[in-house]
């Protein structure tokens, strides 16, 4: 097992919802409910399509750039230092409305209720 991995050797890849990501941690590397940890890059004017996750909670922490995030019917401004916690099954949409690239860390965790149901069947 390698304890250290430098992000400069991790390639960028497209997300399923738009933009580019660098996958810092994959689920297969962990022995926990952590599903992924990504560094995501959104160019000015670019957006991530509205979506939700059926059994996963998501955390966003913004490092660079500005924009807007829509969570269900509420719209929020986004700036460096902002954090969003999104429960499973909550639709969300993100757009870089600024003039510089947006960068954020995003990670997903299996929902506790999902895990409780999974272990109840074992």
The name of the CATH architecture is Sandwich
Quote the distance from N terminus to C terminus: 28 Å
Describe the global form.
Answer: globular
Calculate Rg over CA atoms: 15 Å
Going across the biggest sheet, name each strand in turn.
Answer: 1-2-3-10-5-8
Main beta-sheet strand count, sense and barrel state: 6 strands, antiparallel
Helix/strand structural class: mainly beta
Brief write-up:
The chain is mainly beta. It is built from one helix and ten strands. It has one domain: Jelly Rolls, CATH 2.60.120.
Element layout with pairings:
Elements: E1 13-14, E2 20-26, E3 34-42, E4 47-51, E5 56-64, E6 67-71, E7 74-78, E8 83-86, E9 92-96, E10 102-110, H1 112-120
Antiparallel strand pairs: 1-2, 2-3, 3-10, 4-9, 5-8, 5-10, 6-7, 6-9
């Amino acid at each position: 097992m390698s304890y250290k991995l430098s992000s400069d050797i991790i390639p960028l890849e497209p997300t399923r919802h738009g933009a580019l990501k660098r996958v810092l941690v994959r689920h297969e590397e962990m022995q926990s409910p952590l599903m992924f940890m990504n560094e995501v890059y959104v160019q000015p004017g670019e957006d991530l399509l509205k979506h939700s996750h059926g059994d996963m909670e998501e955390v966003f922490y913004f490092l660079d750039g500005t924009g807007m995030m829509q969570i269900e019917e509420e719209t929020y401004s986004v700036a460096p230092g902002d954090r969003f916690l999104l429960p499973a099954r909550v639709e969300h949409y993100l757009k870089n409305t600024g003039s510089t690239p947006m960068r954020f860390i995003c990670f997903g965790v299996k929902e506790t209720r999902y895990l409780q149901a999974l272990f109840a069947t074992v």
